[in-house]
Amino acid sequence: MSNPPLRRLKPRVFSGVQPTNALHIGNYLGAIRRWVLEQDLKENFYCVVDMHAITVPQDPTTLHRKTRELAALYIACGLDPQKCVIFVQSHVRAHAECCWILNCITPLGWLERMTQYKSKAAAQESVLTGLLDYPVLMASDILLYDADEVPVGEDQKQHVELTRDIAQRFNMLFGDTFVVPAPIIPQSGARIRGFDDPSKKMSKSDAANRGHAVLLTDSPDEIRRTIKRAVTDTGREIVFSEAPEKLGVNNLLEIYELLTQQSRPEIEAHFTGKGYGALKGEVAEVVVEGLRPIRERFNALMTEPGELDRILDDGAARAAAVAEPKVQEIKRRVGFVVR
Length: 339
Ligand code: AMP
Ligand code: TRP
What we know:
- The chain is mainly alpha-helical.
- It has 2 domains: 12-186 and 305-334, Rossmann fold (3-Layer(aba) Sandwich); 220-299, Tyrosyl-Transfer RNA Synthetase, CATH 1.10.240.10.
- 53% of the residues lie in helices and 7% in strands.
- It has a 3-stranded parallel sheet with strand order 1-2-3.
- α4 crosses α7 (129-144), α4 runs parallel beside α13 (305-334) and α12 (276-303) packs across α13.
- The radius of gyration is 22 Å and the shape is elongated.
- The two termini are 17 Å apart.
- Bound molecules: adenosine monophosphate and tryptophan.
């Protein structure tokens, strides 16, 4: 009865983003750009996790709009719907079904010690059951697809480790069923910092603060305004440097480097003798131009919604083709009468 998943030629990648998060240039340069570059080397599943987004109080109109926007942004950033399964979590019912079954083998204590749960719960008066259960839904996302690799930010590493624990426990109780996935955390280095406070990394939780982040959907004028206000230092040297007082300038130079692909000596030579005003102006233009294709493709997808609908329908069908048989197997394993 035990039939472990077949070895695949390409590793399978699964990642998800909540539609409540506004994607910023740090997400793009630190994560999504790599997904795009590696899409030929992997089997790719990229999910808009709308069911995770309702674990905190939310506004239905906003959720509806942001779900479509995030899917459009994935595509606008260069994820090719031919090469990647791009889909909305709630379109594939196997996620909810699998979550219930995994709930029934996950000890409560495992969930209560999740650090993200503890900090989110502390910030709320009344904690919803779904918030505690969030990591089991995430485990379901990953395990339904037998994903080998799960690229996530550092803050999600604990949830992927919990996913491994749940997979191993299920395999032990009911026989080999799940691939035990590995978290893929980007090495520090490509860490974009907040423009308002370069001592902190640019982050989704601060993205709404004025001057903190450039969002992928910002207009050219918004981009210029944010970068012109970027915090630097009182010196005047435009050099790559890890010195604490140079973090702001270094951040601007790293963004310039990532978007122009020029070498560091070339960039430093280019800025020799120029002031911070000129640096910010040039970085702003490089960002405006670098994000232009993303912005244009995003706007096209949002104004002609038929194409996006077709891509999401197709993504849901391709995801279900993997997840449906998997959830049938899971049900059979636990002893359900499967029809
Ligand atoms: P998050 O926005 O924290 O959910 O992160 C989603 C992905 O973007 C993860 O792979 C992060 O490593 C990456 N990421 C988030 N913030 C930054 C940043 N400031 N610089 C570089 N990469 C980032
Ligand atoms: N919890 C993740 C976050 O907030 C989003 C997520 C949900 C996810 N399901 C996933 C990430 C599966 C990777 C794999 O960032």
